[in-house]
């Protein structure tokens, strides 16, 4: 590991420790046996989905793009039990992947990603309880940032270099990428309007939507390309182009899946909103 990469790892480690300290000090956490068992089960479920029910697509010889739903149990843990337990679930899942051989060697950047997967929904659902009127404006702002930045990035990128090959982005390619990126907006709106007619629980759906959008922006579009670039040298620009398109459809799938799973658990009586007890 060269000096630059070592500095990245050290800074990421500091950030992870700081996250743990901030979350622990700013949120109320109850240590109950039932909670710890459920959090452990969620971490194990996430690891199993990642190992056996996900597809990893290599980009130029390096596994870079995962399609699957292994993040949902970690996100669900944060939403149900708060950001601290979401953080613990994410870090534990990373350790389980390492122990099982699913990942060959640890990389603290991906550990930070897993921690954020649990923290972000936990923070959003706490915000939804205390400041519910903030959720819609934050969704609008996040959507605007994601799609505006994606479109501007595509328009300002004329070529990318990978594996000693130059890929030119002419106008047909740029318009295709922009079209794919924007295609999920009407789909999301139509699904939302349809569900709203059949008693959509907005108090649960909107926090999930905001959580997934923030995760896509921060983790999948911004942080993951940096970590993969550090490990394999795969250009960040190329990854952002591909991940921006993937993010558009991941937001739709993950939001609706998380919402329906959450609602199903409530109907089964498996949960009783532990975050409210902690607030």
Describe the structure.
With 279 residues, the chain is mainly α. The longest helix has 33 residues, at 236-268. Helix 1 (3-26) runs parallel beside helix 5 and helix 9 runs antiparallel to helix 10 (236-268). It is built from eleven helices and four strands, in the order H-H-E-E-H-H-H-H-E-E-H-H-H-H-H. The chain starts with a helix and ends with a helix. It is globular, with a radius of gyration of 19 Å. A hairpin with a 2-residue loop joins strand 3 and strand 4. Helices cover 76% and strands 7% of the residues.
Extended strand count: 4
**Helix/sheet category:** mainly alpha
Strand order of the largest sheet: 1-2
- Portion of residues in beta strands equals 5-15%
* Count of DSSP-assigned helices: 11
Chain-averaged pLDDT: 83
Low-confidence stretches: none
Reading the helices and strands in chain order gives: HHEEHHHHEEHHHHH
Q: What sort of overall outline do the alpha carbons produce when their principal axes are compared?
A: globular
Instruction: Measure the end-to-end span.
Output: 44 Å
Question: Main sheet, how many strands, which sense, barrel?
Answer: 2 strands, antiparallel
Helix content: over 70%
Rg is 19 Å
């Amino acid at each position: 590991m060269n000096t630059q990469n070592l500095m990245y790892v050290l800074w990421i480690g500091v950030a992870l420790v700081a996250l743990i300290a901030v979350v622990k000090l700013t949120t109320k956490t109850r240590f109950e046996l039932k909670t710890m068992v459920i959090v452990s089960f969620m971490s194990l479920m996430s690891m199993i989905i990642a190992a056996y029910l996900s597809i990893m697509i290599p980009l130029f010889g390096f596994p870079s793009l995962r399609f699957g739903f292994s993040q949902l149990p970690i996100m669900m843990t944060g939403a149900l039990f708060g950001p601290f337990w979401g953080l613990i679930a994410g870090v534990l899942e990373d350790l389980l992947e390492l122990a099982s051989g699913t990942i060959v060697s640890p990389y603290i950047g991906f550990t930070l990603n897993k921690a954020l997967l649990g923290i972000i929904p936990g923070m959003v659902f706490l915000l939804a309880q205390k400041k519910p009127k903030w959720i819609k404006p934050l969704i609008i702002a996040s959507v605007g940032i994601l799609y505006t930045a994606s479109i501007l990035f595509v328009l300002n990128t004329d070529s990318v270099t990978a594996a000693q090959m130059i890929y030119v982005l002419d106008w047909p390619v740029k318009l295709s990428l922009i079209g794919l990126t924007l295609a999920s907006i009407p789909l999301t709106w139509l699904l939302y309007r349809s569900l709203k007619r059949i008693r959509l629980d907005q108090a649960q759906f909107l926090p999930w939507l905001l959580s997934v959008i923030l995760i896509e922006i921060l983790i999948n579009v911004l942080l993951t390309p940096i970590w993969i670039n550090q490990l394999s040298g795969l250009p960040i620009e190329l990854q952002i182009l591909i991940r921006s398109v993937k993010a558009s459809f991941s937001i739709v799938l993950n939001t609706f899946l998380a919402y329906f799973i959450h609602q199903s658990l409530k109907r089964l009586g498996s949960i009783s909103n532990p975050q409210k007890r902690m607030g």
